[in-house]
Amino acid sequence: MRTTSNPAFRNLPTSGGSGSYAGFGQPYEAQQYGGYQSAPPTTGERPITIDDVVTKTAITLATTLATGFISAWLVLSGQAKPLTLMLPGLIIGLVVSLIIIFKRTPSAPLVLIYAAAEGVFLGAITGVFEGMFKGIAWQAILGTFGVFIAMLIVYKTGAIRVTPRLTKWIIGATVGAAVLMLGNLVLGLFGVNVGLRDGGTLAIVFSLVVIGIAAFNFLLDFEAANEMIRSGVPAKWAWWAAFGLMTTLVWLYLEILRLLSYLQRD
Questions:
Q1: Is 76 contained in some domain?
Q2: Which of 50, 187, 239, 248 is the most exposed place for a label (fewest CB within 10 A)?
Q3: How far is CA 107 from the centre of its chain?
């Protein structure tokens, strides 16, 4: 499997299959009529299919949206302070995500707990931004799904192929952006403003670049999920794929929300 910047997709198991059981990159007809199928896993479990990945991702996303809407409503209605929801959601989501990554075993309960916690965290932040900029929440949600769908189309049509060179470029850009954001945060604690997050022109350009990097990370996520399908790993690993896709979605949503807030300032 190619390297990926998403830790959720690293060190995945393989069953030794040689073909594709039902992948992102294969036609529906090939999936239904015996084309590109790999040997079943030696564990005797049913191999993962594209339907498994789509279903588990949809369940995970629905969980995040449900808790997110509730959290945002509590903040906007004044029934809860943002920090009382934001901090627990952030801490629980971070801890559970680390458990999932280092445990290296798919777990539906853990993935759903992560999704619920992220929903609470994102909802609280969204409530704060919505209180300042009316309508920004729906704009950010629509923008996130728009980017996701666009990158899925790009991947399925082969308009951009996930080559080793592109993979290295995306990983390098992701690490570079993370270092810059961390450096900006540390400098900010000492009162130094480098302009990456102050809403100015540089901040807008930086957010656009980060959004582009996050979008390209979807290509690596799709490819990683497709590798799982081609290898014929057990169906339970669809929860792992759903978790990997959610981490990128959360990152993208936060950055789009931030960019929109910059653009709506006077």
A1: yes
A2: 187
A3: 17
Domain with 56, as residue range(s), is: 47-263
Q: How many domains are there within the chain?
A: 1
In a domain, 26, yes or no: no
Indicate the residue type of 90. L
What value does the mean pLDDT take over residues 96-113?
92
187 part of a folded domain? yes
**Could you give the percent of the chain with pLDDT greater than 70?**
83
Q: What distance in Å separates the CA atoms of residue 257 and residue 230, rounded to the nearest whole number?
A: 35
- Report the C-alpha gap between 202 and 224 in whole angstroms: 33
The model's confidence at residue 103, banded by pLDDT at 50, 70 and 90, is: confident
Asked if residue 22 has pLDDT above 90, the reply is no
Residue 7 maps to a domain:
no
User: Which comes out higher in pLDDT, residue 103 or 2?
Assistant: 103
Least confident interval from 90-94, 117-121, 186-190: 186-190
